[in-house]
Protein 1
Amino acid sequence: MHAQFLQLAVDLAAENVKSGKGGPYGAVIVRNGQIIASSGNCVTSSLDPTAHAEVAAIRLACEKLHDFQLTDCILYTSCEPCPMCLGAIYWARLERVFFACNRHDAAAAGFDDSFIYDEILLSPPNRKIPMQHLGLENAQLPFQLWAQQEAKTLY
Amino acid sequence: MHAQFLQLAVDLAAENVKSGKGGPYGAVIVRNGQIIASSGNCVTSSLDPTAHAEVAAIRLACEKLHDFQLTDCILYTSCEPCPMCLGAIYWARLERVFFACNRHDAAAAGFDDSFIYDEILLSPPNRKIPMQHLGLENAQLPFQLWAQQEAKTLY
């Protein structure tokens, strides 16, 4: 069963290249054995660098289920999620993930997945895209307001 | 100059909590000293778990610039990017990033940023959300088609 849904994700990835819609990636989200959403990578066709197959499928599934969490859903993806998609999977609280290729296959095909995994381990200022902490007096104010806010939706 | 734009991101984060739009985060994207896009976190109001302030601002900036890369742009964010946003920053190829709070401040406020950074270091099957490799005979086909495709947009 898992292999069948994963095969659909790989088929979607192949179709995505043939149609020129985007990169060689596909993702399928399933709940209780039913497909809730699926997508290919559409970074270049939608001019959205975050529109990886997994992120796009998560957005579609949330739209369909009218929820910002997918706690009882399984994600099938043609390739190991990159750090962005991995983060999205945690924030969406998916149940589990199956993948067909890995980050090194993606690197061999010219994609930065493995590079970004390596960059995460560096301290922020030492990354290829430098990330610098700047102290501001009231930097904690948003968190303080959040703690005080009673009518808030946790996520 | 950097501190001023970063202050705007923090102000946006505070305003985001007060208005009930979402979590205590804000981001501003600047090119040549001009603000291109800005956003608060809108996960709960847009029912999109990927709508962190940074991701939302990146998507808006790309829309505005009609591009899927932001190579000459600087991102100012009220808090150190989580792994999802960090990945998005690399895929959008921003020039650099400034942040006010860090992942431990976010953790103290009840957010999973630091937890997800820790999870990345584990092997996929050992994560809290298990990620399992399943071998498929034609798993590499999408990458092979991509290599053969001549008229493709790289990203």
Protein 2
Amino acid sequence: MFGKGEEKSAGRLVRRFGGSRVLIHYGGGSAVRSGLLDRVKKSLDGEGVSYIELGGVRPNPRSGLVREGIELCRKEKVDFILAVGGGSAIDSSKAIAAGTLYDGDFWDFYTGKPITEALPVGTILTISAAGSEGSGDSVITNEDGMFKRGASGEAIRPAFSILNPELTETLPAWQTACGITDIIAHLLERYLTNTKDVVTTDRMIEGLMLAMIEEGPKAMDHPDDYEARANIMWAGMMAHNNSCGVGRSQCWNSHDIEHELSALYDCAHGAGLAVTFPAYLTYVWRHDPERLRQLAVRVWGCEDDPENPEAVILEGIGRYRAFLRRIGMPLTLEEIGGREEDIPKLANSACRGNGRGGTLDGFVSLTEEDVANVYRLML
Amino acid sequence: MFGKGEEKSAGRLVRRFGGSRVLIHYGGGSAVRSGLLDRVKKSLDGEGVSYIELGGVRPNPRSGLVREGIELCRKEKVDFILAVGGGSAIDSSKAIAAGTLYDGDFWDFYTGKPITEALPVGTILTISAAGSEGSGDSVITNEDGMFKRGASGEAIRPAFSILNPELTETLPAWQTACGITDIIAHLLERYLTNTKDVVTTDRMIEGLMLAMIEEGPKAMDHPDDYEARANIMWAGMMAHNNSCGVGRSQCWNSHDIEHELSALYDCAHGAGLAVTFPAYLTYVWRHDPERLRQLAVRVWGCEDDPENPEAVILEGIGRYRAFLRRIGMPLTLEEIGGREEDIPKLANSACRGNGRGGTLDGFVSLTEEDVANVYRLML
């Protein structure tokens, strides 16, 4: 459901998807202060749906709160989870939804066990960024070691999502910018493919990136520009519901490299991506100069020069960095609180931590030394 | 489900969406001759799903066969309809699905009654064109007067669709070209909007059109180019599942103008659109020169000249016509068997036939005289 005031549909939608006893799962106080939570509860009341609440989700959502949520859902016989917030509230809700129906420890799903069943999840989105509102993915930070891992499955793709762009108009500029950065990263991860001749999805990805480049600065300059907020919100969902990613290999190396940063320094995921992605592109573009040149020309508007691809590609990466700076994002490790001396540890954790096999495999395969070099490009 | 051999999933998917007694609804002999129907039946047998068959759907599907299908479904207690074919088989299946659960005459849905329930429909697509595999729309020709009307509703959006691009490799070139034309028309109808600042969906539409312009001729020249077929198949679905049409007014005048042609002359819908759409754009571009100029520049690659928009726009329409000719489409009324003397009758039927209110309302509002002028531009 998309549009102004659509949160009033929450009760009706929960009913339609079989919910009668709901856990409302949310983050900090902004959903409370803005009155959003009250409007959602009123909508549930209106349909005779009962509910309990669990707030306190924080950015880079933690395993501890997931366990608390699972216990609560079992005790209270919850049959539907309603996430109110951004990617963190939604990802935490998905983890609770899968964990509640599972006999073992929910973390098993974040180390490779397929998710085959879960309570239905609905979302009321307040930040355009993670795309979790349309995806079957969830990322959680394990507090026992502070590292992030992801889980996926159709069973945790939301039954419905309510996207009201007005709800994002009061976001701080920083969060808006982090969201824009995350959306572009989700598109780039699908763009960096080794599958040949995927013209339709290439063109869709390019179109969505162009929309973000056009609309992102508008939302930064005029936070209450409803149309810009709406364009970003729809792009954020389309960027990650995989309409643009089907039938092509994808590259999640940048996300894996970034997750070490946000886990260790607790920086915003979007900020970590702003630092990571240009460095990653700089390190790997030689793997497929034609694709990276196409990106520079079609998306970043560089003049084409087939005789001198390196110049075109580096200019494209430069424009990407200038765009990130324009919306207020950091570009170096230092700016997110990182330190050069942590690089070996970061690279080791990305490649070998917690069961990883020694390389990051996507568009290219990166050894631990490669990953360390990518981190060095962030200095 | 997308990819080679995916029709083998039919039985499992029917089961997943609650079917146990299926009507397989299809068109002519190609699904039989190619062995597709046998593979589908084997898949259903493998899951213990019983089925009956109703073939004989023809292009511009007719009300009579729909009524036959409804009777059959009631008598045989069918609980799931599986369409095997293109838009005609799927649209006919949707009509049967809604009609079976309705006490009155199914045609009520095609004169404005909302569809609130229907048997679930699955599809196995054999032609990339109509996009009915992803949409909640259906168009049927009423044999009592030979006119076409559409019905819409979430209840008739397919529960699943199986898209195997290989199945389209044996299509005659003519049908491939008609499909490409239809897909571009579905994108243009969404592009012709009066909603301001819809940058994200604009960019998605442009991207999908660029993909069709690139991939269409490849499939024409090399019918067994799997990648081209796959790009076209995904674009056909994305063009009409409304991911690109949400939140913006659309313009279905061209479809309404075309439907009179295919109803009266029984030409292929795609061929009728090839004749109609450039004529329509030529007649209406002054309503929003900026939008039509943007189309010419971004999609048809015309050099921009803000001082002389008419030249840019007409060059864009010219390139569109050249593209249609390149893939073998007709461009004039005569080429589809039309006659100048029918124009008043066509215009009258489009605007006033069967309960219509006198004007066609979309991007612009057209009177009967306007519609006649659009037909004259096809001479």
Protein 3
Amino acid sequence: MAAAESATALRADAARNRERIVAAATEVFAERGLEASTAEIAARAGVGEATLFRRFPTKDDLITAIIAVQFEQSAELASSCLEEEDPWRGVERFLSGMAERAADDHGMSGAAKERCMASPALADARGRVLDLTSQLVRRAQKAGVMREDVAGQDLMFLMAAVASLGELPFPGLRADLWKRYLGIVLDGLRPDGASKLRPGAPSRKLIEFPEVE
Amino acid sequence: MAAAESATALRADAARNRERIVAAATEVFAERGLEASTAEIAARAGVGEATLFRRFPTKDDLITAIIAVQFEQSAELASSCLEEEDPWRGVERFLSGMAERAADDHGMSGAAKERCMASPALADARGRVLDLTSQLVRRAQKAGVMREDVAGQDLMFLMAAVASLGELPFPGLRADLWKRYLGIVLDGLRPDGASKLRPGAPSRKLIEFPEVE
């Protein structure tokens, strides 16, 4: 009984450490970019580097854990947007919330993040976000407020395109300029005057399982 | 007379060398990214590394020269689009031509390119492209086929956003998927059903002289 209790305590302790490391890495990467040292992350988390390496043998493991948390947050945002009474307002709030987080997240941009985003370990998480996004799209289409020829996948890519504008090499631009371009994209998603989109929407499979070519 | 002739011949030779180096660097960077070695570029151009360094003391000088050529091509494209009879077709062809080149240009993406794009040496070139883009926008607005609240600067950023979709971490996506999203952006630029864009358009100054903060 005492042994079981202490095993439980150990597990809780390990989970807390893991959470602390992921939170610290999120902050440190945002501030210094993905080149930041694991020593700095361990110090910020208040754990030893050995503990960090035991939980996350490579930096990619750490980045993947951060993206997993972001996917969870995206799924929560999408769920809450599905509860908006106005289906268009739901789409709007989802895209703007996603683009806002991505724009705040510059420090983490780079090849390593892109590699980890497409990781097989995150297939379920990608699928969950896509499911909810597709529900947002279908709900707006049923209500007649969104063009019929777009899919949930399209929203993910459009959001990425808008967020990429936070990385332009013009330092004087206001940080929320992306909102302007999100406005144009949202107008382009309305049903009236829609042109015929070519090529067709990318398949869900390519986003859930990009590693399988 | 003979001395003047040989000086002219020398200048012509130097200009040819410079052009060959810029063309070779464009190819090599596109294939291998901006990390490619100057040795490889010199070999491709058929000149010695000493000649390359005399013309372009730093890699940034070389990248800036490539971007200058791209800005010239953009200005030529904009001029030819201004001659389209249909003003909307002019906008469409300009955005699609710019996004196509940017999407073919992945190898050259990175911090060094962004730094060089904003270089003071390219202020005139940026201004020329912006002038022509603004003419395309005003012509379409006068014809009543484009929303009134956008400026030439907006087209540059929207094009960059669409082109950024060529760098998504999903290897199975078709290379021309950006055309789909350009279609949505173009629909969003139409006058009907336009929402009120916030924030306002970025100033021209920020793009022409980003180095002055």
